[in-house]
User: Fold Cytochrome c family protein from Maritimibacter alkaliphilus HTCC2654.
Amino acid sequence: MKAILTTAAILTLSGAAAFAESHAVMVDAEAGEGDFRKCKSCHAISSADEDIVKGGRTGPNLYGVIGRTAGSYEDFNYGDDIVAAGEAGLVWDTTNMVEYLADPKAFLQAYLEDDGAKSKMTFKLKDGEDVAAYLATFSEGEMEEGEGS
Assistant:
């Protein structure tokens, strides 16, 4: 009986591992470039020297956003809550960017611990991993949570 239970446990665990491996989310900056089309109606990606992605001006320029303090891009009129988040220490990394893209308002409410917090960005991008990876290619480094200042 013990051998049957051990065999069943091994088969269950190996099946779960195979399932997880076959369904792993592959983060792909190239795919993020295509997904960014949804963002460029409001956001551009422009360095000091070139327009990499010509986009709208409703949102801030996203060149160098990974590693940047939230709400700090010069000459952009941010909402009060994203500025408050930046003043409270929010620095964009790929992890928190994905969380923000999924639901900007809910992210700010949780980060600021304020149910009244709002975001000017109303668009939600459910699967933003690739977009965050794409944006990281235009930053000093591909920072993860906790890196940078």
User: Anything to note?
Assistant: The chain has a mean pLDDT of 83. The domain at 29-136 is CATH 1.10.760.10 (Cytochrome Bc1 Complex; Chain D, domain 2).
